[in-house]
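Data deposition worksheet. Section B asks for the primary sequence of the deposited chain exactly as it was used as input, without tags or linkers unless they were present during the calculation. Section C holds the resulting structure in token form. Section D is free text for depositor observations; keep each observation to a single sentence. Incomplete worksheets are returned to the depositor.
Section A, Depositor: J.P.
Section B:
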Amino acid sequence: MPFHLRSKRWACIVAHRRAGKTVACVNELLTRALASRKDRAQFAYIAPYFVQAKQIAWQYLLEYGAGVITKKNESELWIEVSNASGSTSRIMLFGADNSDRLRGLYLDGVVIDEPADIRPSFFGTIIRPMLADRKGWCVWIGTPKGHNEFYNIHKRSMNEKDWFGMVLKASKSGLLDAAELKDAAKDMTGDQYEQEFECSFEAVIQGSVYGKWIRGAIDKGMAKSGVYDPELPVYTAWDLGFDDLTCILFWQKAGKEIRVIHAYANSGEGIEHYCDYLKSKGYTYQDHFVPHDAANKLMAAGGRSIVQQAHALGVKMRIVAATSQMNSIEAARKTLEFTWWDSIECDEVLEAMLQYQYEYDEERQTFKTKPRHDWTSHFADAYEIIGQVWKELKPPEKPEKPRFLHEMTSQELFWPKGV
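Section C:
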């Protein structure tokens, strides 16, 4: 009830598994939709993936909306109800994996489920502008998964006056009986139980591919602002996507150090967009490294590969030979020991690398050798390109400094170099 009766525009609920947070938020959406006095109000529930939204929330929406739903679309997952203004309100279900479907819409309210599994920039770049003209509200709900964007949102909700924050631990909520919790604790590791039932943000992310290395770099102070050196050339490493993200990491080599200075990711754009973005940064580039399939992949270009398109736009790409995923991961882990990060420009990359996980085998109750494919994998794939190429790079030749006449020999004066 404190959640439903809140007056704050922003809210965050950190809740243990099976606490009923999705049911609460579906009812919140229905209540707000019915009570709205705005013409054609729009509300949304967003899960990390569209299929999750359908599996998790659609049946709840139909169940609790029974008797008030005036129209529905099962293929696009939306319902309409009559609201207090005499107009209609629409509640829509989306997946953050297809942000293009959200563009151009406005929202009066939105629920974002499991934000730890969604790109950190998703709210700022996609959702926040959709709320602006209608002064819409937002609720984040989820279970902890380490120190990430959801952790930051939780901290804001507990410390800022214009936020509502709630934490529901299984040991305090009384929603699951003590015997069941005791039994669950026997079948889970300590970290798993603390994360899933006691809402601990400190528990180690299980099955993280690079978590130990990234956490070590952060602890050593290797993630800080201002690692860019204007005297050094800039390289880029790419992971190319169509419906998925295209990620570009901007980096430098300084002796035995790698410095990741900036990152950019987007989706639904052609190669022209990314080449224009490179030019807008104003860096002096040395090489642009892309995966082997860039020679085959097309971004709507009449049969020309991405490499050919980029070349025509003034960006000469170098193709990195294919190797096994195990080799890529091993090379990346060794490279992480020498990698410095711009903590401001690369916050999204650092979070992705922390969360990048192996798939879990439910039958064998263990992690597989293959990482799962989600938003984190695109940043990790781009970094793995760096791991494959950086050791072979030769330092760029420095131009000779001009010498004064009194420093030159008579032979150099009368017979200049090259004559």
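Section D:
Residues 211-392 form a domain with the Nucleotidyltransferase; domain 5 fold (CATH 3.30.420.280).
The longest helix spans residues 50-65.
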